[in-house]
Amino acid sequence: IQCALEASRICYFYEISSIMRNPPWGVTANLCTRSRTISRNFNFFSRTYPRTGGGEDVDFCIRSKSAGHGRIVGVPAAKVVHPYWNSPFAQIAGWAQGDVLCLGQLPHVAFYTPPNWAELALGCLVWGLYRFYSEGAKTARAAFTWALLAPIVEVVMLFPRFYWFAQGLPKNRVLVALLAATPPMLQDVVRLVSKLKRCRLQEVCQHFDWMNKSGHHPEEIRSHICWKLVEWLAVGWAVQSTANREVAVSAALIIYTTWIVRHCGSLLVAEWKPPVARRHGLGVEIEAGKVPFVLLAYQRTGSNMLVRNHLNKHPDIHMHFELFNEKAIYTQSHPGVTTPGAIRNIDKIRARDKNPAAFLSQIISESPTTAVGFKLFPEHVTDLDFLEQLLADRRIRKVILRRENQLGCVTSIVRATVTGEYIKVSHDKVPVHISAADFQAFSEGYERYYTFLRDRLAGQSYHEITYESVVADAEKALRPVYKSLGVSGPSSKPPALPGDLQPQSTGVLRNALANYEELSGVFASTERHADFT
Predict the structure, then answer these.
(1) CA-CA distance, 248 to 239, in Å (whole number)?
(2) Using alpha carbons only, what angle is made at residue 131 by residues 126 and 134, rounded to the nearest 5 degrees?
(3) pLDDT of residue 385
(4) SS3 for 123?
(5) Residue 291, number of CB atoms within 10 A of its CB
(6) What is the rounded CA–CA span in Å between residue 128 and residue 86?
């Protein structure tokens, strides 16, 4: 049965992150979202769906995107071990019931098709029963034959594709391919029964677009059903007709052969298809004399302090904050220039996400200064292509900011998350507990991110500065950055302003961590031991 489930591709979305960078939805057990990404008046999971699973994940993801919370990002390296179901077919039937509920909750993502095999069989059975009770068994025989042919033709039409997918599986390939037809056919029956139970006759022949209009799912389903419908008619003609049986058989064979070539042939071509090369450059329009740059950083590495206390005080630099934050567009006013701070208009956020190149082009052109920059955190990236193109665009200067003391960084993240205060408010009286496993996981992710940036920027001129160097001597740390942006360094220390930021913690890490001694002992013989000194 497990081999049949694999061959049927019924669990396709469990591995969607390795197929699509921005999938339309993700399986509940494989979803991860931050609470502050979701607005307060947004319900995570609708109570319309059964608690046993089925449709709630699709509904959540589609509503979340419609609400402007950004796109889903696939993380192929993340692995979630999902136990095998005790009753796999019951689970699959639950998914089908969820599909039907989605039709009512998300009607804008539904579409109509010709009747599938289950709907054809039901129609023929109803017609046959009517003929049986009104005219007798002989007149009803033809209708019952047509009804019986519907599931037979469905299995025959599904077999070639599932036989292809069964390649390399440990069980008998023919048996696996035949059994693989059970999950999709079971779902067709459950969907139809669910619609009839709920008296939703208008939903008969209606399907739900799992891809949320991001692909050609409706066209593919319509095409498949039309092919099967034509084959069903040809086979029925061959069975019912005596005078033209040879012609009908020939027609059925021609249709079936074309079906095999069309679908299994496309699979073979897909294996031969060469990989698509990545595009280089972001396509941003940059006016002559403008110098755009991006500050690539991690949370709690001192980026706010760097932007507000130093970069944005420079007369020739217009430095924005988080332009690509999922909840708002955080622009920054240059001293003496009035511009909006946080733009929360959902239409503007959607326009930014739909065309980031055009958005950046406008930001750059509207800047009153020569150099114009913004900062970018890993969690701001919902489109990996955008990040790749941004890093590859040599016209956009790159500045990397990191914090050498990773323990200080993660402690600051936890404190800010616990308190909800990310600037100004002191954290000195907020002790936290961080397990050794959590710190290790954070450190590994932290290093991977900066290694990724350095790998992508190999061959380019970029500058890497640290939080510690800015705190110790900002003028010295930023001197090469100013030079790369084509602006002169400030002749004197920038004046203090009311909006200047101070570190949220002035105490030592020993007082910030409830389990400081424990962590210090665990990491005593590692590179991270320096974070404790």
Answers:
(1) 9
(2) 125
(3) 84
(4) helix
(5) 21
(6) 38
The residue ranking higher by pLDDT, 36 or 353, is 353
* Residues belonging to the chain: 533
Q: Helix, strand, or coil here: 437?
A: helix
Pairing outcome for strands 206-208 and 397-402: unpaired
CB atoms within 10 A of CB 449: 16
Contact present, 501 and 308 (Cβ < 8 Å): yes
pLDDT on residue 40: 62
Q: What is the 3-state secondary structure (H, E, C) of 47-85?
A: CCCCCCCCCHHHHHHHHHHHCCCCCCCCCCCCCCCCCCC
**pLDDT tens figures, 290-306:** 999 999 999 999 998 89
Nearest-5° angle of CA 317, CA 322, CA 325? Answer: 160
pLDDT in tens, 212-244: 887 788 998 999 999 999 999 999 999 988 888
Q: Which of 21-25, 130-134, 403-407 has the lowest mean pLDDT?
A: 21-25
DSSP letter (8 states) at residue 294 = E
Does the reported pTM lie above 0.70? Answer: no
pLDDT digits (tens, 9 = 90+) for 111-122: 999 999 999 999
Distance, in Å, from the CA atom of 307 to the CA atom of 126, rounded to the nearest integer, reads 72
User: Please, which residues bridge with residue 295 across strands?
Assistant: 375, 399
Backbone angles phi, psi at 300, to 5 degrees: 65, 35
Q: Encoding tokens for residue 98?
A: 């969820």
What is the Cα Rg of the chain in Å? 30
* Alpha carbon distances (Å) from 234 to 140, 241, 340, 487, 524: 20, 10, 66, 76, 76
- Tokens 């665009």 found at: 393
What SS3 state is found at 35? helix
Q: Which residues of 409-442 are buried (b: 16+ CB within 10 A; e: fewer)?
A: bbbbbbbbbeeeeeeeeebeebebebeeeebeeb
Q: What gap in Å lies between CA 201 and CA 195, rounded to an integer?
A: 7
